[in-house]
Amino acid sequence: MVKICCIGAGYVGGPTMAVIALKCPSIEVAVVDISVARITAWNSDQLPIYEPGLDEVVKQCRGKNLFFSTNVEKHVSEADIIFVSVNTPTKTRGLGAGKAADLTYWESAARMIADVSKSDKIVVEKSTVPVKTAEAIEKILTHNSKGINYQILSNPEFLAEGTAIEDLFSPDRVLIGGRETPDGQRAIKALKDVYAHWVPEDRIICTNLWSAELSKLAANAFLAQRISSVNAMSALCEATGADVSQVSHAIGKDTRIGPKFLNSSVGFGGSCFQKDILNLVYICECNSLTEVANYWKQVIKVNDYQKSRFVNRVVSSMFNTVSGKKIAILGFAFKKDTGDTRETPAIDVCNGLLGDKAWLSIYDPQVTEDQIQRDLAMKKFDWDHPVHLQPMSPTSVKQVTVVWDAYEATKNAHGLCILTEWDEFKSLDFQRIFDNMQKPAFVFDGRNVVNADKLREIGFIVYSIGKPLDPWLKDMPAMA
Ligand code: NAD
Ligand code: UDX
């Protein structure tokens, strides 16, 4: 029986390994982590992450050929294939701080593999890493090898949160990069055989190591670039009376452009886009490619601009001050169908409003109060360092309350901001909400989920990202 061990039981390691276990009953899969809390949750009825379809997959395999454990060394030493899916956050200090990937967790995993291995291993980079990381990992492993043969593969993960199980069941492609030596090719074949249990062969792409590593950063940069492009257009739409949804629809019909990923929003979030683009920028700078670095930097600048533009719009519409006013925040997760708040645009928007002394009442169907308070108290880039995965007493942000109901959040509020596109927000009773709000009552839709015309009929003043402006908003132009 082939044995797989995955180091890192997070958003990628957990679902990916659960699907491998489901699709490959002949393979034993162990997912290990240094976080006792995470492993305990994976072994309980309350999984540590919310992901549609995940519970069913885990329930079918856990205890049969899928195991979650903190006994990292045992499972690593027994495995034939070791996936490393630890976090690779942005460095917060030292050389490259604020841009470069922090490979501390990766390096410590590699050193541990070298320490405990007694047989040949295929080590698979599942984490997103800077191009050429495999070379560094290879050096750590071979310099400590005790005669063991290690083959390093790059197998970046392309799943998106909220649709992880769907993406894993039916991926657009699986990418495997390896050395062009006979041993390297054998290792590629071994990993390909795992995926071939359910992924059609023509969707499994094999490349050299550096192409695989770089393709992951490139894919995220291209996707984020599309969002910044459409968000840049949204500002122009508001200035000219064009409607960004109509523009997206019109350009998306061009098969060379395509319709996906053209939804204007309050900004992209999530643990990957910003981190990976910063990493790409840093790699370009290290290679003296200043113009290329500046090109990609702009994607993040536009994203930051979009978030601050939204805050400015809220404040300027409400007579240039939100001081002491209650504002309801509907949605805190970085997208719908996940409880993940990493780099969610809601953090920047809330902090912007808090900076103007607003009182916030926040509701998200999947995010806990503890998480929200912690996010609002945390410094930029600190969120992805394991110390923060442990429970800590949050510095409570006193201007913030977290409630479990959209009606409670909006009661007596002057305005409401929709920051995540949860489906349930579409079917709220807005007449009831309007009746219980201060007047004039404002809706700021950062995801274009509500029907603005219907809300205007009720009496709301509505701002929808990238849509023709309400006469009220035209009279109160937001400062850029
Ligand atoms: P995560 O923070 O959810 O999980 C990482 C886990 O690794 C944590 O539970 C942590 O405790 C554990 N860990 C860290 N060091 C360890 C060690 N030495 N030994 C054992 N466990 C250790 O992160 P994630 O979202 O799963 O992302 C993991 C990697 O995958 C990152 O490089 C990320 O960029 C990439 N990625 C993420 C996504 C996504 O949607 N989240 C998608 C594609 C790729
Ligand atoms: C992303 C990539 O899509 C995935 O391939 C990679 O493996 C990890 O990073 P994820 O961050 O989970 O996945 O979600 P994604 O659906 O890409 O959304 C990222 C952000 O962009 C979210 O905040 C989302 O709301 C926003 N977004 C997405 C838009 O604002 N407009 C869009 O049209 C699409």
From TrEMBL:
**Enzyme Commission no:** 1.1.1.22
Q: Keywords for this entry?
A: NAD, Oxidoreductase
* Pathway listed: Nucleotide-sugar biosynthesis; UDP-alpha-D-glucuronate biosynthesis; UDP-alpha-D-glucuronate from UDP-alpha-D-glucose: step 1/1
Q: Which InterPro entries match?
A: 6-PGluconate_DH-like_C_sf, NAD(P)-bd_dom_sf, UDP-Glc/GDP-Man, UDP-Glc/GDP-Man_DH_C, UDP-Glc/GDP-Man_DH_C_sf, UDP-Glc/GDP-Man_DH_dimer, UDP-Glc/GDP-Man_DH_N, UDPglc_DH_euk
Question: Pfam families given for it?
Answer: UDPG_MGDP_dh (PF00984), UDPG_MGDP_dh_C (PF03720), UDPG_MGDP_dh_N (PF03721)
| Residue ranges annotated for the UDP-glucose/GDP-mannose dehydrogenase C-terminal domain, each copy included | 328-452
* GO BP: glycosaminoglycan biosynthetic process; UDP-glucuronate biosynthetic process
Catalysed reaction per UniProt? UDP-alpha-D-glucose + 2 NAD(+) + H2O = UDP-alpha-D-glucuronate + 2 NADH + 3 H(+)
Query: Which residues are the active-site ones?
Result: 272 (nucleophile)
- At the top of the EC hierarchy, this enzyme's class is oxidoreductase
Q: Where does NAD(+) bind?
A: 8-13, 33, 38, 86-90, 127-128, 161, 272-275, 342
**GO molecular-function term, one example from the UniProt record:** UDP-glucose 6-dehydrogenase activity
Gene Ontology cellular component annotations, sorted alphabetically: nucleus
Family membership: Belongs to the UDP-glucose/GDP-mannose dehydrogenase family.
Its protein name is UDP-glucose 6-dehydrogenase
Give the organism the record lists.
Actinidia chinensis var. chinensis (Chinese soft-hair kiwi)
